[in-house]
Design a protein that fits this description.
Oligomer: single chain
Bound molecules: nicotinamide-adenine-dinucleotide
Helix content: 25-40%
Strand content: 15-25%
Radius of gyration: 19 Å
Number of strands: 13
Largest sheet: 7 strands, parallel
Number of domains: 2
């Protein structure tokens, strides 16, 4: 299937890879972004670009009048700590902005909306690992609340206006174009520090775990989710899919993996644990494998090599 897609946050890290994946599959692509964090040069040359804030009337008009088949919502305030310090700002971008996008999609007769949710936050402190979709429960940050509430907006407005909503709950995404200056990308931060000969800071004892998924695998999950048949169901998790690897990696192991990929021995500095951080996170991906026919294809070592090549300027 191909058609016309609008990607909010399309100048950002994940959104720009999604744009490339859809272009490669023959779609007509429009990226909408306020460039608060994204970069204009990350928008692929063959995509249209609209500079707008997702909360604005301009964004509403761009989405509603564009005759899009699919809208993919990636634009967000992504920093958990900003959400703790400024919950109203987080809610304004992540909820008001999403509600505006969804209303516009409804007004424009869009058939399907994909939403970038987060498997790292909608499950709160998970009782079950790898964590399956039905256990989404009590987020422990305002960012987590905005992602879980976003899934509810998607469900309710989809049912009211007749579009299909699919929530993709990403694990920890890494890969080229992730900003090492951001708080969110530990992989990029470690790679950039190791390349600069600087020690890696590990908060706590480094045994805390995450599930790291490569950005091009995430883009491919979006492409598949744009056209697969989804049921609405009577539960939030029915049209929700974890996008992850199902593999747990500790921060200590992450440092060693990166050291091997770059051929350098990392020096590690341990710092006090950060309050409010999850201790373990790892997502069950069997539902995406079954319903989206999606499994991650890029191994951790291969993904790290591609990230290192990007830092070298060898890939875009
Ligand atoms: N990176 C991860 O590991 C991860 C994990 C789970 C979920 N997510 C979600 O995936 C999505 C993409 O994240 P990312 O890592 O690519 O971050 P990113 O910051 O690179 O991308 C977000 C984009 O949204 C844009 N944006 C922010 N506020 C906007 C606004 N008000 N109007 C228009 N555009 C706006 C930014 O300029 C940026 O280009 C986000 O929704 C994020 O919450 C990311």
């Amino acid at each position: 299937m191909s058609g016309s897609v609008l990607i909010t946050g399309g100048a950002g890290f994940i959104g720009s890879h999604i744009a490339e994946a859809f272009l490669a599959a023959g779609w007509s692509v429009t990226c909408l972004d306020d460039l608060s964090r994204g970069k204009r040069q990350q928008v692929p040359r063959d995509a249209r670009f609209v500079k707008a804030d997702v909360r604005s009337p301009e964004a509403f008009t761009a989405v509603a009048d564009g005759k899009f088949d699919v809208v993919i919502h990636q634009a967000a305030q992504i920093d958990v700590r900003i959400s703790v310090d400024q919950p109203a700002l987080d809610a304004s971008i992540n909820l008001v902005g999403f509600a505006n996008t969804l209303s516009a999609a409804a007004a424009g007769g869009v058939k399907r909306v994909l939403f970038a949710s987060s498997g790292g936050v909608v499950y709160g402190d998970p009782a079950l690992l790898p964590t399956p979709e039905p256990t989404a429960n009590l987020p422990i940050s305002p960012y987590g609340v905005s992602k879980l509430a976003g899934e509810h907006y998607l469900r309710v407005l989809g049912a009211l206006h007749g579009f299909e909503g699919v929530a993709l709950r990403y694990a920890n995404v890494y890969g080229p174009r992730q900003d090492p200056a951001s708080e969110a990308g530990v992989v990029s931060i470690f790679v950039s520090r190791l390349r600069a000969g600087k020690p890696l800071t590990v908060f706590g004892d480094g045994t805390q775990t995450r599930d790291y998924v490569f950005v091009k695998d995430v883009a491919r999950a979006n492409l598949l989710a744009a056209s697969v048949t989804v049921s609405r169901g009577d539960r939030l998790d029915v049209p929700a899919f974890n996008v992850a690897t199902g593999r747990e990696t500790s921060v200590n192991d992450l440092a060693q993996h990166i050291g091997r990929a770059l051929g350098r021995q990392p020096a590690i500095e341990y710092a006090p644990p950060r309050p409010g951080e999850l201790f373990r996170s790892c997502l069950d991906v069997s539902k995406a494998a079954r319903d989206l026919k999606w499994v991650p294809q890029v191994s951790f070592d291969e993904g790290l090599k591609q990230l290192a090549a990007w830092f070298d300027g060898a890939v875009q």
